[in-house]
Amino acid sequence: MNDAPIGVFDSGVGGLTVVRAIMSRLPHESIIYFGDNARGPYGPRPIQEVRDFALEISGFLEDLGVKIIVIACNSATSAGLLEVQRRCRVPVLGVVEPGARGAVQATRNRRIGVIGTVVTIRSRAYLRAIRALDAGATVISRACPTLVDFVERGEVEGPRVEAEVAKYLSPLKKRGVDTLVLGCTHYPLLRGVIGRFMGQEVRLISSDEEVAREVEENLRRRGYLRASDTPPNYRFMCSGDVGQAVSLGRFFLGPEVEEVERVELPLASSGSFPKGHLSEVSCP
């Protein structure tokens, strides 16, 4: 048994979709969530910069005593998962492989579409992960750089979102994909619009539930599952606007986001894990 919390981080609030799945599957586990909303979204940034951010935040969560880290961000997973795993003392899971596995299991015609940020698509992480599971699969990838902005504004329905989704997904629809990987943790909030455009015959795959299952299996193998009768503790942190983090956090997750602590983190440098410090707490 290990009462230490699970650490989860993302470039903003999108990773709360993964937190929600973990809460549902592991209701006794405590969780620390960090959203890097001061520097997010990560999608347009250089891959090395995103890797540095992932190393920095993972080290910060380790310093807080988490027992496992989930990189709940496709861009950060694509850019830095292997390096973070090499550097951290605790297990580190990403979101790409679970999503790829779900897609390979779901497809019937082996034509899989992948949408994500520029960093995620440019890294070809999903292509490699899918081909490792099915070398004969056809993978059609498309970067959708503006969709995260819509979600971060809380705009997940309406004609503007529908037009943007149609612009990005029309080529994938024409190529006949029967499975579409939502390769960004923000995209499940757009599932309604994306599903209507792609049609009922296309399976939409997000990695949140698969990640939660892998967290449970990893903790169970290590004997780390929390067995305490006391309620779990949920702690939410961000690097930028606290008020925005609270309002969007409640939109993504619900009333569990009672307060958000603002943490100032310097840029990762020289292979070290700098410590952050709390500067503000909001609980409107």
Structure report:
- The chain is an alpha/beta fold and 284 residues long.
- The chain has helices at residues 16-25, 47-63, 74-87, 96-106, 118-123, 125-133, 147-152, 159-174, 191-198, 208-222, 242-252, and strands spanning 6-10, 31-35, 68-71, 92-93, 111-116, 138-143, 179-183, 203-205, 234-238, 260-264, 277-282.
- Strand 7, helix 9 (191-198) and strand 8 (203-205) form a beta-alpha-beta unit.
- The two termini are 35 Å apart.
Short structural description:
With 284 residues, the chain is α/β, with parallel strands linked by helices. It has helices at 16-25, 47-63, 74-87, 96-106, 118-123, 125-133, 147-152, 159-174, 191-198, 208-222, 242-252; strands spanning 6-10, 31-35, 68-71, 92-93, 111-116, 138-143, 179-183, 203-205, 234-238, 260-264, 277-282.
Main CATH class of the largest domain: Alpha Beta
Write the CATH architecture name of the largest domain. Answer: 3-Layer(aba) Sandwich
Query: What is the number of domains?
Result: 2
Number of extended strands = 11
Look at the helices and sheets and give the structural class: alpha/beta
| Biggest sheet overview | 7 strands, mixed
Mean pLDDT: 90
Radius of gyration: 18 Å
Q: Could you say which overall geometry the principal axes of the C-alpha atoms support?
A: globular
Termini separation (Å)? 35 Å
Q: Output the number of helix runs.
A: 11
What would the CATH topology of the largest domain be? Rossmann fold
> What is the string of SSEs from the N terminus onward?
EHEHEHEHEHHEHHEHEHEHEE
Q: What percent of the residues sit in helical stretches (DSSP H or I)?
A: 40-55%
Low-confidence stretches: 267-284
